[in-house]
Amino acid sequence: MMESEEAFKNRMEVKVKIPEELKSWFPEDWDLVTRQKQLFQLPAKKNVDVILEEYANCKKSQGNDKEYAVNEVVVGLKEYFNVILATQLLYKFEGPQYAEILLTHPDMPMSQVYGAPHLLRLFVRTAAMLAYTPLDEKSLVLSLGYLHDFLKYPAKNSASLFTASDYKVASAEYHLKALGGSTDHSLLCLVSLNTFCS
């Protein structure tokens, strides 16, 4: 069903403000993967689930009276991450690595495998996703407030969460899979059981 022109015009513009400490990581991450052909080592030393859990524990230790909301944000981020990782958070060069992870860990949520760089990529996509939710303006502002609060946590811990030493140059065999096209897109879709692939 097409969105009406009026609904499109009335949709609120949503912006997720990425802290300055994290903004510089985007080009570095892109360069490591796409130009230098390095891969973030998986499973991550500190995976997405652990990062989100540490954030929740940090908020609870501060005597946060909004514990339920913090838990809901953590659960929501984890679910959203697991749903969109394959289709929106990976560079093409990372496709064969993802397929291998699915084969070796078929029952494991990807939030228990991937780490901080992929979680950070999620926040670039979050604004577009929020713009299409049926939230009223007050709920949207509240949701953005929680997301911005979460982003303070990786910003504060950026030196330990975002480091080029977590990437390694891909093997020659991997390059053949990634660049030679031997990992076909339909196979990747089949392996990931992702219904968004066409």
Strands in their spatial order, largest beta sheet: 1-2
Whole-number mean pLDDT: 83
**Rough shape?**
globular
Point out poorly predicted stretches.
182-198
Structural class: mainly alpha
Strand content: under 5%
- Specify the oligomeric state: single chain
Radius of gyration: 18 Å
**Helical content, roughly?**
55-70%
Q: What string, H for helix and E for strand, traces the elements in order?
A: HHHEHHHHHHEHH
DSSP strand count: 2
Give a quick account of the main beta sheet: strands, pairing sense, barrel closure: 2 strands, antiparallel
- Give the termini distance in whole angstroms: 19 Å
How many helices? The count is 11
Descriptive overview:
By secondary structure, the protein is mainly alpha-helical. 63% of the residues lie in helices and 3% in strands. The chain has eleven helices and two strands. The chain has a two-stranded antiparallel sheet. The C terminus is likely disordered.
Q: What is the compact description of this entry?
A:
This is Mortality factor 4-like protein 2. The chain is mostly helical and 198 residues long.
Descriptive key words:
198 residues; two-stranded antiparallel sheet; mainly alpha; disordered C terminus
Question: What's the helix and strand layout?
Answer:
Elements: H1 5-10, H2 20-23, H3 25-35, E1 38-40, H4 48-61, H5 67-89, H6 95-104, H7 116-131, H8 137-156, H9 158-161, E2 167-169, H10 172-180, H11 185-192
Antiparallel strand pairs: 1-2
Helix pairs in contact: 4-5, 5-7
